[in-house]
């Protein structure tokens, strides 16, 4: 039988039974519903189907109303309408509304089967295109959040799952770990990516000015308010508001932010006019907000309003297998920005990179890579210790293997793209892939 079922909607039990039997004899899976309301309720549970066939004239919601609701919730689902003789104007209207096809009573069963199979093929193609788009998004995400360590792969998966939602998110990570990068990925890979992404560093704003920054103000609202100004919440409506260092926000402002998010509306300072909001908030912190709440330094109710999901960015010292890849990436960026030829690190530097604690995380690593590219003195990194992970040659080999693996994954096994990125002769790449047991097919 077909993988996706045919859904049949008709209030006439005789029609439902006869069409169901005929379609099943044609090796098609069928689910029958006696009303449009029943079919819509099943769709709302997340159930999928390949094509929906509905009579037009039914009590309650008719076929056209069903079509409109399906189009609003799942525009890729083909809907076929069965119309009575003489209902051509209605059929034309249905096609304008987005119906896949219509068939006029009485009809030959073979004609219905042919059209149903074409609709099923279209639905299958729609799903395949969705999967392809998701794979492309994941590939783009991997280019934005580099690394193949378990922690960073898990983070990419979480972002991929959350980006298409409007859920508020708390991003927790140490200084320099890339919290704004994560926030921008949540925005850029979501459905509101064309809307504004507005950032506010709560730690960089004086406590007595943060409410004006968030809510905006009217001219004359306070001393120094020489003109009206929209706030960050209003500016970000429709998109994403990124609140960095949320732990620095005064408690008085937290109360007003919580109310704004609960009510979905604000008023500028000095005005009674209500402004509706529709936005996602991504808040970043380097501390445990619940610990702060327990100490009375952060509102617990605001935390739960913000942290529908909480993402943790692993510090660089916990993803050492990514350090070499990230270092080379930052070196290439610096070489391009400063118009310098790229430099290859020696084994001693590679070993030091892998053993350094990186308290400044990605920001510190980028600084070291830029200095290295410019030929400047590299800050003193950790010296190799007796408990270092393997000999120098083993660490170099681990670095090479991670670099090749990441490049192959990023380019989905495209050997020419890997050659171009790493600037390697084909023979050298083949030898190293053989040395490290890397097969192109595993990255397709």
Overview of this structure, please?
The structure is a single chain. The strands form four sheets. The chain has a five-stranded parallel β-sheet, sandwiched between helices. Strands 7-10-13-6-14 form a five-stranded parallel β-sheet. The protein has a two-stranded antiparallel ribbon with strand order 8-9. It starts with 5 loop residues before the first strand and ends in a 9-residue tail after the last helix. By secondary structure, the protein is of the alpha/beta class. It is flat, with a radius of gyration of 29 Å. Helix content is 48%, strand content 12%. Residues 383-388 have low confidence and may be disordered. The chain has helices at residues 13-25, 36-44, 63-73, 88-97, 109-144, 150-162, 179-188, 210-215, 232-235, 251-263, 289-294, 300-306, 323-337, 347-355, 361-373, 392-410, 415-422, 426-435; strands spanning 6-9, 30-33, 51-55, 79-83, 101-104, 169-172, 197-201, 216-217, 229-230, 240-244, 265-266, 275-276, 280-285, 309-312. The longest helix is centred in the first third of the chain and has 36 residues, at 109-144. The chain has three domains: 6-131, 3-Layer(aba) Sandwich (Rossmann fold), CATH 3.40.50; 145-314, Rossmann fold, CATH 3.40.50; 317-443, Helicase, Ruva Protein, domain 3 (Orthogonal Bundle), CATH 1.10.8.60. The chain is built from 18 helices and 14 strands.
Question: Which properties best describe this structure?
Answer:
single chain, 444 residues, alpha/beta, Rossmann fold, Helicase, Ruva Protein, domain 3, 3 domains, five-stranded parallel beta sheet, 48% helix, flat, Sigma_54_int_dom_ATP-bd_2
